[in-house]
């Protein structure tokens, strides 16, 4: 059992433990800890730990410090992955619909971007600067691949029929996204942003923001990358607006709150619009169904797809309004 290795590495005795998603809550003779396990290769894992330690060293207050092993290491190898140790905190996940809690999240992510500035890594890894267009071109092509798989079936499922029904609408939007990016100042803006050497958390879901009685903590840095702060900001906007919340007032609220820490130019808002244009959720559910073949029920897949297509009308209307406001700043 890997817990024996953990006990030896940190010098405590585990009295009991509980597995919660990808962490272990350890009750020990020295207190309660969180063991965060990841199944990455060592090169990827070293990048994650380096990024976290950089934030900690810069005094970023919304991250849990990492405990070193007895031998002074930041992590240990266990089974087919690696793990690091932090305190286990008594906290609740934030509710994005609570504007006070949302403001706290915006502040936490903006301060992460500020604290991360100047981060450099010895090899080029997880570097997304200037790669948005490349990424969206690839995903646009993958949409065609998903359709080809679907059309090759002799007997189509209900999921297939719905996916095909809404394919042209979403594929055309992926092409418009690419066209708008290519006529923007994306590369020019990224050249200036790249000099900041920022870190993006890259998973700004509400369950990664935990509120304690005295602080908000941002957890799970498994997807951390190097990229412009606009990446996390655009993702946070999408997470708050999608599935029936497409409201320009909410968009402006998040943008204005973030701009209190890092000002956003009109040209940068246009890049955020372009980022939001790509039909990410439609692509994601297609990938999960046709390529990854996630072990979910057909009912689960249908629920996910229907949620996306039912959201399409409000999403398209919002994007049209946003383009009307910021399209001239391309």
Automatic annotation (TrEMBL):
Matches recorded under Pfam families: APH (PF01636)
This protein's UniProt keywords: Capsid protein, Virion
Signal peptide: none
GO cellular component: endospore-forming forespore
Top-level taxon of the source organism: Bacteria
Domain Aminoglycoside phosphotransferase residues, every copy: 24-241
Cross-referenced InterPro entries: Aminoglycoside_PTrfase, CotS-like, Kinase-like_dom_sf, Spore_coat_CotS
Keyword Repeat tagged: no
NCBIfam families tied to this protein: spore_CotS
Record-given protein name: Spore coat protein S
Organism: Thermobrachium celere DSM 8682
Lineage: Bacteria, Bacillati, Bacillota, Clostridia, Eubacteriales
